[in-house]
Protein backbone atom coordinates (compact mmCIF):
# COMPACT_ATOMS: atom_id res chain seq x y z
CA UNK A 1 0.00 0.00 0.00
CA UNK A 2 1.70 3.09 -1.10
CA UNK A 3 0.54 6.54 -0.66
CA UNK A 4 2.24 9.17 -2.67
CA UNK A 5 5.90 8.58 -2.95
CA UNK A 6 6.57 5.74 -0.64
CA UNK A 7 5.36 2.64 0.87
CA UNK A 8 3.13 3.54 3.70
CA UNK A 9 5.82 2.60 5.99
CA UNK A 10 10.47 6.24 6.22
CA UNK A 11 9.67 4.94 8.05
CA UNK A 12 9.89 4.66 5.62
CA UNK A 13 10.21 5.49 5.95
CA UNK A 14 12.11 10.34 6.25
CA UNK A 15 13.00 8.51 6.31
CA UNK A 16 12.31 9.48 5.19
CA UNK A 17 11.99 14.05 4.37
CA UNK A 18 11.09 16.11 1.37
CA UNK A 19 13.05 16.95 -1.74
CA UNK A 20 13.65 20.42 -0.36
CA UNK A 21 14.80 19.00 2.95
CA UNK A 22 17.28 16.69 1.29
CA UNK A 23 18.54 19.52 -0.92
CA UNK A 24 18.97 21.97 1.92
CA UNK A 25 20.74 19.55 4.23
CA UNK A 26 23.17 18.81 1.41
CA UNK A 27 23.65 22.52 0.78
CA UNK A 28 24.59 23.01 4.40
CA UNK A 29 27.19 20.30 4.04
CA UNK A 30 28.56 22.15 1.03
CA UNK A 31 29.07 25.25 3.14
CA UNK A 32 30.61 23.34 6.02
CA UNK A 33 32.86 20.75 4.46
CA UNK A 34 33.22 17.71 6.62
CA UNK A 35 35.22 14.51 6.18
CA UNK A 36 34.38 12.57 3.05
CA UNK A 37 32.14 10.17 4.89
CA UNK A 38 29.68 12.96 5.74
CA UNK A 39 29.75 14.90 2.52
CA UNK A 40 26.05 14.36 2.02
CA UNK A 41 23.12 12.76 3.73
CA UNK A 42 20.72 10.10 2.62
CA UNK A 43 17.82 11.47 0.69
CA UNK A 44 14.48 11.04 2.33
CA UNK A 45 12.81 11.34 -0.99
CA UNK A 46 12.10 8.89 -3.70
CA UNK A 47 15.51 7.40 -3.62
CA UNK A 48 15.52 3.88 -4.73
CA UNK A 49 15.23 1.47 -2.05
CA UNK A 50 18.00 -0.12 -1.57
CA UNK A 51 15.97 2.11 1.74
CA UNK A 52 12.82 1.70 0.00
CA UNK A 53 11.40 4.02 1.75
CA UNK A 54 11.38 4.27 -1.48
CA UNK A 55 12.61 0.54 -2.73
CA UNK A 56 15.35 -1.11 -4.92
CA UNK A 57 17.83 1.08 -3.01
CA UNK A 58 16.97 4.45 -1.42
CA UNK A 59 19.58 6.34 -3.40
CA UNK A 60 20.78 9.60 -1.95
CA UNK A 61 20.39 11.63 -5.07
CA UNK A 62 17.89 9.89 -7.30
CA UNK A 63 15.40 12.68 -6.95
CA UNK A 64 17.57 15.53 -5.72
CA UNK A 65 18.27 18.67 -7.66
CA UNK A 66 21.75 19.61 -8.76
CA UNK A 67 23.66 21.10 -5.85
CA UNK A 68 25.89 24.12 -5.76
CA UNK A 69 28.03 25.45 -2.99
CA UNK A 70 27.68 29.11 -3.85
CA UNK A 71 26.24 31.25 -1.12
CA UNK A 72 24.00 33.09 -3.54
CA UNK A 73 22.56 29.81 -4.74
CA UNK A 74 21.70 28.87 -1.21
CA UNK A 75 19.76 32.07 -0.73
CA UNK A 76 18.03 31.95 -4.09
CA UNK A 77 14.95 30.05 -2.82
CA UNK A 78 14.38 32.87 -0.33
CA UNK A 79 14.86 35.54 -2.95
CA UNK A 80 12.42 33.77 -5.21
CA UNK A 81 10.00 33.41 -2.34
CA UNK A 82 10.18 37.11 -1.55
CA UNK A 83 9.41 37.94 -5.17
CA UNK A 84 6.25 35.90 -5.25
CA UNK A 85 5.47 34.73 -1.75
CA UNK A 86 1.75 34.25 -2.13
CA UNK A 87 1.75 32.23 -5.30
CA UNK A 88 5.00 30.33 -4.85
CA UNK A 89 3.60 27.42 -2.94
CA UNK A 90 0.28 27.57 -1.22
CA UNK A 91 0.66 23.86 -0.84
CA UNK A 92 4.39 23.58 -0.47
CA UNK A 93 4.01 22.12 2.99
CA UNK A 94 2.79 18.86 1.54
CA UNK A 95 6.27 18.17 0.16
CA UNK A 96 4.92 15.01 -1.43
CA UNK A 97 6.17 13.32 1.69
CA UNK A 98 4.85 10.36 3.58
CA UNK A 99 5.97 9.51 7.06
CA UNK A 100 7.42 6.29 5.84
CA UNK A 101 9.75 7.86 3.42
CA UNK A 102 12.06 7.27 6.21
CA UNK A 103 11.69 3.58 5.85
CA UNK A 104 12.16 2.71 2.27
CA UNK A 105 13.23 3.99 -1.10
CA UNK A 106 11.87 4.23 -4.61
CA UNK A 107 12.64 2.21 -7.68
CA UNK A 108 14.09 5.22 -9.46
CA UNK A 109 17.60 3.80 -9.32
CA UNK A 110 17.81 0.00 -9.60
CA UNK A 111 21.56 0.00 -9.02
CA UNK A 112 22.32 -1.42 -5.57
CA UNK A 113 24.58 0.51 -3.21
CA UNK A 114 28.03 -0.96 -2.74
CA UNK A 115 28.53 -2.49 0.65
CA UNK A 116 30.73 -0.48 2.98
CA UNK A 117 32.26 -2.30 5.94
CA UNK A 118 31.55 -0.88 9.36
CA UNK A 119 34.39 1.55 10.27
CA UNK A 120 37.05 0.35 12.67
CA UNK A 121 37.05 3.39 14.91
CA UNK A 122 35.33 4.00 18.19
CA UNK A 123 32.72 6.71 17.87
CA UNK A 124 32.23 9.38 20.44
CA UNK A 125 28.49 9.43 21.13
CA UNK A 126 27.85 11.89 23.95
CA UNK A 127 24.09 11.54 23.68
CA UNK A 128 21.76 11.03 26.65
CA UNK A 129 20.54 7.53 27.42
CA UNK A 130 16.97 8.79 27.09
CA UNK A 131 17.71 9.10 23.37
CA UNK A 132 20.09 6.23 22.66
CA UNK A 133 18.04 3.54 24.43
CA UNK A 134 14.65 4.19 22.78
CA UNK A 135 13.66 3.41 19.18
CA UNK A 136 10.91 2.20 16.92
CA UNK A 137 11.08 -0.75 14.52
CA UNK A 138 9.91 -0.78 10.92
CA UNK A 139 9.46 -4.10 9.10
CA UNK A 140 9.29 -3.97 5.33
CA UNK A 141 7.34 -6.64 3.43
CA UNK A 142 8.55 -6.27 -0.18
CA UNK A 143 5.72 -7.94 -2.12
CA UNK A 144 2.55 -6.65 -3.74
CA UNK A 145 -0.14 -8.41 -5.72
CA UNK A 146 0.21 -5.77 -8.46
CA UNK A 147 1.82 -2.36 -8.94
CA UNK A 148 -0.26 0.79 -8.58
CA UNK A 149 -0.02 3.19 -11.51
CA UNK A 150 1.55 5.98 -9.42
CA UNK A 151 4.03 3.85 -7.46
CA UNK A 152 7.78 4.04 -8.05
CA UNK A 153 8.86 2.35 -4.84
CA UNK A 154 10.78 -0.81 -4.56
CA UNK A 155 8.19 -3.51 -4.60
CA UNK A 156 8.11 -6.92 -6.16
CA UNK A 157 5.27 -8.95 -7.61
CA UNK A 158 6.13 -12.54 -6.70
CA UNK A 159 6.30 -15.10 -9.50
CA UNK A 160 7.20 -18.80 -9.21
CA UNK A 161 10.86 -19.23 -10.06
CA UNK A 162 11.73 -15.53 -9.94
CA UNK A 163 14.96 -14.89 -8.00
CA UNK A 164 13.27 -12.18 -5.93
CA UNK A 165 10.53 -14.55 -4.77
CA UNK A 166 11.48 -16.03 -1.40
CA UNK A 167 9.54 -18.67 0.55
CA UNK A 168 7.57 -17.22 3.45
CA UNK A 169 9.55 -19.15 6.07
CA UNK A 170 12.89 -18.01 4.69
CA UNK A 171 11.88 -14.34 4.48
CA UNK A 172 10.24 -14.35 7.91
CA UNK A 173 13.21 -16.00 9.63
CA UNK A 174 15.67 -13.64 7.96
CA UNK A 175 13.62 -10.64 9.11
CA UNK A 176 13.63 -12.00 12.66
CA UNK A 177 17.38 -12.54 12.53
CA UNK A 178 17.95 -8.99 11.31
CA UNK A 179 15.83 -7.64 14.17
CA UNK A 180 17.94 -9.58 16.67
CA UNK A 181 21.22 -8.50 15.11
CA UNK A 182 20.22 -4.84 14.86
CA UNK A 183 19.18 -4.66 18.51
CA UNK A 184 22.28 -6.50 19.70
CA UNK A 185 24.51 -3.97 17.91
CA UNK A 186 22.81 -0.87 19.30
CA UNK A 187 22.17 0.85 22.61
CA UNK A 188 18.43 0.22 22.29
CA UNK A 189 16.63 -1.33 25.25
CA UNK A 190 13.10 -0.05 24.62
CA UNK A 191 10.97 -0.30 21.47
CA UNK A 192 8.09 2.17 21.58
CA UNK A 193 6.32 1.08 18.37
CA UNK A 194 6.47 -1.43 15.54
CA UNK A 195 5.20 -0.79 12.02
CA UNK A 196 4.69 -3.48 9.38
CA UNK A 197 4.70 -1.74 6.01
CA UNK A 198 5.57 -2.41 2.41
CA UNK A 199 4.78 -3.43 -0.17
CA UNK A 200 1.58 -5.00 1.05
CA UNK A 201 2.27 -6.54 4.47
CA UNK A 202 -1.32 -7.68 4.84
CA UNK A 203 -0.40 -10.30 2.19
CA UNK A 204 2.13 -11.77 4.62
CA UNK A 205 1.26 -14.46 7.10
CA UNK A 206 0.18 -13.33 10.57
CA UNK A 207 2.89 -15.70 11.75
CA UNK A 208 5.49 -13.14 10.64
CA UNK A 209 4.08 -10.58 13.06
CA UNK A 210 4.03 -13.14 15.82
CA UNK A 211 7.68 -14.09 15.21
CA UNK A 212 8.92 -10.49 15.25
CA UNK A 213 6.99 -9.53 18.37
CA UNK A 214 8.11 -12.68 20.16
CA UNK A 215 11.74 -11.71 19.62
CA UNK A 216 11.16 -8.18 20.88
CA UNK A 217 9.28 -9.43 23.91
CA UNK A 218 11.79 -12.16 24.74
CA UNK A 219 14.57 -9.60 24.89
CA UNK A 220 12.44 -7.30 27.02
CA UNK A 221 12.60 -4.56 24.42
CA UNK A 222 8.92 -4.10 23.57
CA UNK A 223 7.27 -1.63 25.92
CA UNK A 224 3.97 -2.63 27.47
CA UNK A 225 1.12 -1.31 25.35
CA UNK A 226 3.44 -0.44 22.47
CA UNK A 227 1.71 0.57 19.25
CA UNK A 228 1.91 -2.22 16.64
CA UNK A 229 0.57 -1.12 13.25
CA UNK A 230 -0.16 -3.08 10.08
CA UNK A 231 -0.67 -1.53 6.67
CA UNK A 232 -3.76 -3.10 5.15
CA UNK A 233 -4.90 -3.28 1.57
CA UNK A 234 -8.74 -3.37 1.78
CA UNK A 235 -9.48 -6.37 -0.43
CA UNK A 236 -11.96 -9.01 0.67
CA UNK A 237 -9.16 -11.55 1.05
CA UNK A 238 -7.12 -9.35 3.38
CA UNK A 239 -10.16 -8.28 5.37
CA UNK A 240 -10.67 -11.93 6.26
CA UNK A 241 -7.23 -12.12 7.89
CA UNK A 242 -7.62 -9.07 10.16
CA UNK A 243 -8.68 -11.16 13.14
CA UNK A 244 -5.65 -13.43 12.74
CA UNK A 245 -3.36 -10.42 12.62
CA UNK A 246 -4.95 -9.09 15.80
CA UNK A 247 -4.34 -12.41 17.52
CA UNK A 248 -0.72 -12.25 16.36
CA UNK A 249 -0.25 -8.89 18.12
CA UNK A 250 -1.43 -6.12 15.80
CA UNK A 251 -3.33 -3.41 17.71
CA UNK A 252 -3.63 -0.70 15.06
CA UNK A 253 -4.29 -0.75 11.31
CA UNK A 254 -3.64 1.75 8.54
CA UNK A 255 -6.01 1.11 5.65
CA UNK A 256 -5.05 2.26 2.17
CA UNK A 257 -8.43 3.24 0.79
CA UNK A 258 -7.02 6.10 -1.34
CA UNK A 259 -10.38 6.91 -2.94
CA UNK A 260 -14.10 6.17 -2.75
CA UNK A 261 -14.48 6.72 -6.49
CA UNK A 262 -14.51 3.59 -8.65
CA UNK A 263 -13.05 5.37 -11.68
CA UNK A 264 -10.20 6.75 -9.57
CA UNK A 265 -9.37 3.32 -8.18
CA UNK A 266 -9.22 1.97 -11.72
CA UNK A 267 -6.91 4.80 -12.81
CA UNK A 268 -4.64 4.14 -9.84
CA UNK A 269 -4.68 0.40 -10.63
CA UNK A 270 -5.77 -0.43 -7.11
CA UNK A 271 -6.87 -4.02 -6.59
CA UNK A 272 -9.87 -3.30 -4.36
CA UNK A 273 -13.33 -1.88 -4.99
CA UNK A 274 -15.21 0.86 -3.14
CA UNK A 275 -17.47 -1.78 -1.60
CA UNK A 276 -14.49 -3.82 -0.40
CA UNK A 277 -12.95 -0.72 1.18
CA UNK A 278 -16.12 0.04 3.11
CA UNK A 279 -16.44 -3.57 4.26
CA UNK A 280 -12.83 -3.55 5.43
CA UNK A 281 -13.35 -0.36 7.44
CA UNK A 282 -16.44 -1.83 9.03
CA UNK A 283 -14.63 -5.03 10.00
CA UNK A 284 -11.69 -3.07 11.37
CA UNK A 285 -13.98 -0.95 13.54
CA UNK A 286 -15.12 -4.02 15.43
CA UNK A 287 -11.59 -5.43 15.84
CA UNK A 288 -9.56 -2.25 16.44
CA UNK A 289 -11.94 0.37 17.89
CA UNK A 290 -10.26 3.76 18.12
CA UNK A 291 -7.12 2.39 16.46
CA UNK A 292 -7.81 2.82 12.74
CA UNK A 293 -6.18 5.14 10.25
CA UNK A 294 -7.31 5.71 6.68
CA UNK A 295 -5.20 6.92 3.75
CA UNK A 296 -6.92 9.19 1.25
CA UNK A 297 -5.52 10.83 -1.88
CA UNK A 298 -6.40 14.18 -3.37
CA UNK A 299 -5.44 15.78 -6.65
CA UNK A 300 -7.01 13.07 -8.80
CA UNK A 301 -8.14 13.96 -12.34
CA UNK A 302 -11.82 14.19 -11.39
CA UNK A 303 -11.33 16.26 -8.26
CA UNK A 304 -12.95 19.63 -7.77
CA UNK A 305 -13.55 21.22 -4.38
CA UNK A 306 -17.22 20.21 -4.13
CA UNK A 307 -16.66 16.59 -5.10
CA UNK A 308 -13.59 16.29 -2.92
CA UNK A 309 -15.37 17.74 0.11
CA UNK A 310 -18.11 15.13 -0.25
CA UNK A 311 -15.51 12.38 -0.44
CA UNK A 312 -13.81 13.63 2.74
CA UNK A 313 -17.16 13.71 4.54
CA UNK A 314 -17.87 10.17 3.37
CA UNK A 315 -14.48 9.04 4.66
CA UNK A 316 -15.03 10.59 8.08
CA UNK A 317 -18.44 8.94 8.35
CA UNK A 318 -16.69 5.57 7.96
CA UNK A 319 -13.56 6.30 10.02
CA UNK A 320 -13.35 9.19 12.47
CA UNK A 321 -10.21 8.10 14.39
CA UNK A 322 -7.34 9.13 12.17
CA UNK A 323 -6.97 10.27 8.56
CA UNK A 324 -3.86 10.74 6.41
CA UNK A 325 -4.15 12.93 3.32
CA UNK A 326 -1.71 12.63 0.46
CA UNK A 327 -1.41 14.52 -2.79
CA UNK A 328 -1.19 12.35 -5.88
CA UNK A 329 2.16 12.96 -7.52
CA UNK A 330 3.52 11.90 -10.88
CA UNK A 331 6.80 9.95 -10.73
CA UNK A 332 8.96 9.12 -13.72
CA UNK A 333 8.87 5.52 -14.77
CA UNK A 334 5.32 4.90 -13.59
CA UNK A 335 2.26 4.10 -15.68
CA UNK A 336 0.64 7.33 -14.50
CA UNK A 337 3.63 9.34 -15.70
CA UNK A 338 3.32 7.86 -19.17
CA UNK A 339 -0.40 8.63 -19.22
CA UNK A 340 0.15 12.24 -18.17
CA UNK A 341 2.96 12.74 -20.70
CA UNK A 342 0.74 11.32 -23.45
CA UNK A 343 -2.05 13.70 -22.52
CA UNK A 344 -4.36 10.86 -21.54
CA UNK A 345 -4.63 12.07 -17.95
CA UNK A 346 -4.69 15.64 -16.68
CA UNK A 347 -4.20 16.42 -13.01
CA UNK A 348 -5.29 19.60 -11.21
CA UNK A 349 -2.97 22.61 -11.26
CA UNK A 350 -1.03 23.55 -8.12
CA UNK A 351 -3.47 26.30 -7.12
CA UNK A 352 -6.28 23.78 -7.43
CA UNK A 353 -4.28 21.33 -5.32
CA UNK A 354 -3.94 24.00 -2.66
CA UNK A 355 -7.67 24.59 -2.69
CA UNK A 356 -8.38 20.87 -2.35
CA UNK A 357 -6.05 20.62 0.63
CA UNK A 358 -7.57 23.68 2.31
CA UNK A 359 -11.08 22.31 1.82
CA UNK A 360 -10.09 19.03 3.45
CA UNK A 361 -8.41 20.74 6.42
CA UNK A 362 -11.52 22.81 7.08
CA UNK A 363 -13.94 19.90 6.59
CA UNK A 364 -11.98 17.73 9.01
CA UNK A 365 -11.75 20.52 11.55
CA UNK A 366 -15.52 20.92 11.51
CA UNK A 367 -16.01 17.28 12.49
CA UNK A 368 -13.38 17.32 15.22
CA UNK A 369 -10.28 16.00 13.46
CA UNK A 370 -7.39 18.37 14.11
CA UNK A 371 -4.19 18.59 12.09
CA UNK A 372 -1.28 17.46 14.25
CA UNK A 373 1.06 17.12 11.26
CA UNK A 374 0.86 18.49 7.73
CA UNK A 375 -0.76 15.35 6.31
CA UNK A 376 -2.20 13.73 9.42
CA UNK A 377 -5.40 14.37 11.37
CA UNK A 378 -6.66 12.84 14.60
CA UNK A 379 -9.74 13.07 16.79
CA UNK A 380 -7.70 12.94 20.02
CA UNK A 381 -4.14 12.59 21.24
CA UNK A 382 -4.73 8.88 21.86
CA UNK A 383 -5.40 8.29 18.15
CA UNK A 384 -2.28 10.08 16.90
CA UNK A 385 0.31 7.77 15.36
CA UNK A 386 3.04 7.09 17.93
CA UNK A 387 5.24 5.54 15.27
CA UNK A 388 5.05 8.52 12.92
CA UNK A 389 5.62 10.98 15.74
CA UNK A 390 8.85 9.15 16.49
CA UNK A 391 10.13 9.98 13.01
CA UNK A 392 9.10 13.61 13.19
CA UNK A 393 10.78 14.00 16.58
CA UNK A 394 14.09 12.62 15.33
CA UNK A 395 13.88 9.37 17.29
CA UNK A 396 16.03 6.38 16.38
CA UNK A 397 14.41 3.74 14.23
CA UNK A 398 15.54 0.35 13.01
CA UNK A 399 14.42 -0.68 9.53
CA UNK A 400 14.49 -4.39 8.72
CA UNK A 401 13.70 -6.21 5.50
CA UNK A 402 14.54 -5.48 1.85
CA UNK A 403 14.90 -1.77 1.12
CA UNK A 404 14.43 -0.58 4.70
CA UNK A 405 16.13 2.53 6.11
CA UNK A 406 17.41 3.11 9.64
CA UNK A 407 18.64 5.97 11.81
CA UNK A 408 20.63 4.46 14.67
CA UNK A 409 23.27 5.40 17.22
CA UNK A 410 25.56 2.36 16.92
CA UNK A 411 27.46 0.68 19.67
CA UNK A 412 31.21 1.10 19.70
CA UNK A 413 32.14 0.41 16.10
CA UNK A 414 34.39 -2.61 15.95
CA UNK A 415 36.79 -3.80 13.31
CA UNK A 416 35.15 -4.55 9.99
CA UNK A 417 37.49 -7.50 9.50
CA UNK A 418 35.33 -10.39 10.65
CA UNK A 419 35.32 -13.82 9.15
CA UNK A 420 32.28 -15.13 7.37
CA UNK A 421 32.02 -17.76 10.06
CA UNK A 422 31.83 -15.12 12.78
CA UNK A 423 29.26 -13.13 10.85
CA UNK A 424 27.06 -16.17 10.38
CA UNK A 425 27.30 -17.35 13.98
CA UNK A 426 23.84 -17.84 15.40
CA UNK A 427 22.00 -17.80 12.08
CA UNK A 428 18.77 -19.72 12.25
CA UNK A 429 19.04 -23.04 10.44
CA UNK A 430 15.98 -22.33 8.31
CA UNK A 431 17.65 -19.25 6.82
CA UNK A 432 20.83 -21.11 5.90
CA UNK A 433 18.75 -23.97 4.51
CA UNK A 434 16.60 -21.61 2.48
CA UNK A 435 19.51 -19.84 0.88
CA UNK A 436 21.40 -23.04 0.14
CA UNK A 437 18.37 -24.43 -1.64
CA UNK A 438 18.21 -21.42 -3.91
CA UNK A 439 21.33 -21.69 -6.08
CA UNK A 440 20.04 -18.95 -8.31
CA UNK A 441 20.24 -16.45 -5.51
CA UNK A 442 23.84 -17.38 -4.77
CA UNK A 443 25.00 -17.42 -8.36
CA UNK A 444 23.26 -14.22 -9.40
CA UNK A 445 24.20 -12.10 -6.40
CA UNK A 446 27.51 -10.28 -6.96
CA UNK A 447 30.09 -9.90 -4.23
CA UNK A 448 29.23 -6.91 -2.12
CA UNK A 449 32.70 -6.33 -0.67
CA UNK A 450 35.69 -4.95 -2.51
CA UNK A 451 39.18 -3.73 -1.79
CA UNK A 452 38.08 -0.36 -3.10
CA UNK A 453 35.42 -0.11 -0.43
CA UNK A 454 37.87 -1.27 2.24
CA UNK A 455 40.43 1.39 1.30
CA UNK A 456 37.75 4.07 1.16
CA UNK A 457 36.63 3.24 4.65
CA UNK A 458 40.20 3.15 5.93
CA UNK A 459 40.73 6.59 4.39
CA UNK A 460 37.61 7.95 6.09
CA UNK A 461 38.80 6.47 9.38
CA UNK A 462 42.06 8.41 9.03
CA UNK A 463 40.12 11.57 8.24
CA UNK A 464 38.03 11.08 11.32
CA UNK A 465 40.84 11.21 13.85
CA UNK A 466 39.69 14.59 15.11
CA UNK A 467 36.26 13.17 15.99
CA UNK A 468 37.31 9.84 17.43
CA UNK A 469 37.00 9.19 21.12
CA UNK A 470 40.26 8.12 22.70
CA UNK A 471 39.65 5.16 25.04
CA UNK A 472 40.28 6.03 28.64
CA UNK A 473 39.56 9.72 28.22
CA UNK A 474 36.40 11.74 28.55
CA UNK A 475 35.07 14.01 25.88
CA UNK A 476 34.11 17.39 27.28
CA UNK A 477 32.18 20.02 25.33
CA UNK A 478 34.25 22.81 26.81
CA UNK A 479 37.40 21.23 25.33
CA UNK A 480 36.07 21.65 21.81
CA UNK A 481 37.87 24.34 19.81
CA UNK A 482 34.71 25.83 18.37
CA UNK A 483 31.01 25.36 17.82
CA UNK A 484 31.53 24.53 14.16
CA UNK A 485 33.85 21.63 15.00
CA UNK A 486 31.34 20.19 17.43
CA UNK A 487 28.57 20.58 14.87
CA UNK A 488 30.38 18.10 12.65
CA UNK A 489 30.87 15.48 15.31
CA UNK A 490 29.45 12.15 14.13
CA UNK A 491 26.66 10.93 16.42
CA UNK A 492 24.43 8.65 14.34
CA UNK A 493 24.30 6.38 11.32
CA UNK A 494 21.88 6.45 8.41
CA UNK A 495 21.60 2.98 6.92
CA UNK A 496 20.02 1.61 3.75
CA UNK A 497 19.26 -2.05 3.15
CA UNK A 498 19.62 -3.87 -0.14
CA UNK A 499 16.33 -3.58 -2.00
CA UNK A 500 16.16 -6.82 -3.92
CA UNK A 501 14.94 -9.58 -1.59
CA UNK A 502 17.53 -12.07 -2.87
CA UNK A 503 20.41 -9.64 -2.41
CA UNK A 504 19.11 -8.59 1.00
CA UNK A 505 18.92 -12.24 2.07
CA UNK A 506 22.48 -12.84 0.91
CA UNK A 507 23.62 -9.82 2.95
CA UNK A 508 21.80 -11.11 6.01
CA UNK A 509 23.52 -14.47 5.63
CA UNK A 510 26.92 -12.84 5.38
CA UNK A 511 26.80 -10.36 8.22
CA UNK A 512 23.50 -10.55 10.08
CA UNK A 513 21.86 -7.56 8.40
CA UNK A 514 20.94 -6.39 4.91
CA UNK A 515 22.73 -3.03 5.03
CA UNK A 516 24.10 -1.90 1.69
CA UNK A 517 25.02 1.67 2.58
CA UNK A 518 25.96 3.46 5.77
CA UNK A 519 26.44 7.20 6.13
CA UNK A 520 27.71 8.84 9.27
CA UNK A 521 25.51 11.71 10.41
CA UNK A 522 26.96 14.71 12.21
CA UNK A 523 25.20 16.76 14.86
CA UNK A 524 24.27 19.47 12.37
CA UNK A 525 22.88 16.95 9.88
CA UNK A 526 20.74 15.25 12.53
CA UNK A 527 19.54 18.63 13.83
CA UNK A 528 18.76 19.73 10.28
CA UNK A 529 16.66 16.64 9.65
CA UNK A 530 14.83 17.29 12.91
CA UNK A 531 14.24 20.93 11.99
CA UNK A 532 12.61 19.89 8.72
CA UNK A 533 10.48 17.08 10.15
CA UNK A 534 9.60 18.77 13.45
CA UNK A 535 8.23 21.87 11.75
CA UNK A 536 5.71 19.67 9.98
CA UNK A 537 4.01 19.03 13.30
CA UNK A 538 1.76 21.06 15.55
CA UNK A 539 4.26 20.53 18.36
CA UNK A 540 7.08 21.98 16.31
CA UNK A 541 10.79 21.75 17.06
CA UNK A 542 11.19 21.60 20.83
CA UNK A 543 14.14 23.11 22.68
CA UNK A 544 14.43 19.93 24.72
CA UNK A 545 14.94 17.66 21.70
CA UNK A 546 17.12 20.24 19.91
CA UNK A 547 19.50 20.23 22.89
CA UNK A 548 20.00 16.49 22.45
CA UNK A 549 21.55 17.09 19.04
CA UNK A 550 23.15 20.53 19.54
CA UNK A 551 23.59 20.93 23.32
CA UNK A 552 26.10 23.78 22.95
CA UNK A 553 23.91 25.85 20.60
CA UNK A 554 20.37 26.29 21.90
CA UNK A 555 17.31 26.85 19.77
CA UNK A 556 17.04 30.37 21.17
CA UNK A 557 20.68 31.19 20.43
CA UNK A 558 20.15 30.26 16.81
CA UNK A 559 16.80 31.88 16.08
CA UNK A 560 16.04 34.68 18.58
CA UNK A 561 16.14 37.97 16.70
CA UNK A 562 16.83 36.23 13.38
CA UNK A 563 13.37 35.30 12.12
CA UNK A 564 12.50 38.76 10.88
CA UNK A 565 9.85 38.73 8.18
CA UNK A 566 8.87 35.16 9.00
CA UNK A 567 7.61 36.30 12.40
CA UNK A 568 6.27 39.58 11.06
CA UNK A 569 4.20 37.69 8.48
CA UNK A 570 2.88 35.33 11.16
CA UNK A 571 4.42 32.25 9.57
CA UNK A 572 6.46 30.97 12.52
CA UNK A 573 6.36 31.40 16.28
CA UNK A 574 9.35 31.09 18.60
CA UNK A 575 9.00 30.60 22.35
CA UNK A 576 11.47 29.41 25.00
CA UNK A 577 10.01 25.91 24.60
CA UNK A 578 9.77 25.51 20.82
CA UNK A 579 9.90 26.81 17.27
CA UNK A 580 6.76 26.01 15.32
CA UNK A 581 5.04 26.94 12.11
CA UNK A 582 1.68 28.67 12.39
CA UNK A 583 -1.39 27.49 10.53
CA UNK A 584 -0.43 29.86 7.72
CA UNK A 585 3.20 28.80 7.86
CA UNK A 586 2.40 25.10 7.45
CA UNK A 587 1.27 25.90 3.91
CA UNK A 588 4.64 27.49 3.09
CA UNK A 589 7.19 25.25 4.74
CA UNK A 590 9.17 24.59 1.58
CA UNK A 591 9.81 28.30 1.28
CA UNK A 592 10.42 28.86 4.99
CA UNK A 593 12.94 26.05 5.50
CA UNK A 594 15.74 27.49 3.31
CA UNK A 595 15.68 30.65 5.41
CA UNK A 596 15.86 28.70 8.66
CA UNK A 597 18.75 26.60 7.39
CA UNK A 598 20.51 29.76 6.32
CA UNK A 599 20.20 31.13 9.86
CA UNK A 600 21.64 27.91 11.29
CA UNK A 601 24.46 28.03 8.76
CA UNK A 602 25.38 31.58 9.78
CA UNK A 603 25.72 30.50 13.40
CA UNK A 604 28.14 27.75 12.41
CA UNK A 605 30.44 29.87 10.26
From TrEMBL:
Protein origin, superkingdom: Eukaryota
Gene Ontology CC: mitochondrion
Stretches the record annotates as Disordered: 48-70, 416-460
Biological process terms in GO annotation: porphyrin-containing compound biosynthetic process
Pfam family, one: HemN_C
InterPro entries: Coproporphyrinogen-III_oxidase, Elp3/MiaA/NifB-like_rSAM, HemN_C, HemW-like, rSAM, rSAM_horseshoe, rSAM_sf
Segments forming domain Radical SAM core: 129-371
Biased composition regions of type Polar residues, renumbered to the chain: 443-459
Listed PROSITE patterns: RADICAL_SAM (PS51918)
MF terms in GO: 4 iron, 4 sulfur cluster binding; coproporphyrinogen oxidase activity
Similarity comment: Belongs to the anaerobic coproporphyrinogen-III oxidase family. HemW subfamily.
Function: May be a heme chaperone, appears to bind heme. Homologous bacterial proteins do not have oxygen-independent coproporphyrinogen-III oxidase activity. Binds 1 [4Fe-4S] cluster. The cluster is coordinated with 3 cysteines and an exchangeable S-adenosyl-L-methionine.
Name the UniProt record assigns to this protein: Radical S-adenosyl methionine domain-containing protein 1, mitochondrial
Source species: Scylla olivacea (Orange mud crab)
Amino acid sequence: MNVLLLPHSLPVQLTMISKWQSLIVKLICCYHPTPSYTSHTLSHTKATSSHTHATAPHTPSSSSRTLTSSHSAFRSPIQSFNRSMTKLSRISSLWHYHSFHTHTASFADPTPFPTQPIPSYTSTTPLPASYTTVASVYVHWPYCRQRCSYCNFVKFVPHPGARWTLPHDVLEDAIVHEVKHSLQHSHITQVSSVFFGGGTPSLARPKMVEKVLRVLQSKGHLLEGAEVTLEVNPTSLETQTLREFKEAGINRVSIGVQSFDAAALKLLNRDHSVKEAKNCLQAAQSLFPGRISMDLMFGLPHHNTERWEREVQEAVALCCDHLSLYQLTVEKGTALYRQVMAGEVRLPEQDQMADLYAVAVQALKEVGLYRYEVSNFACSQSTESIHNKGYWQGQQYIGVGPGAHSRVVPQVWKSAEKSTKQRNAGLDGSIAKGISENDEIRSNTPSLHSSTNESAVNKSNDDMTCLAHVPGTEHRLEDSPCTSTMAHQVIREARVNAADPASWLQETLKKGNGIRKTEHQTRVVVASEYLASGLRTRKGVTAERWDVFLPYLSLGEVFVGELGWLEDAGLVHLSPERLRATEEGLALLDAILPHLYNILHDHLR
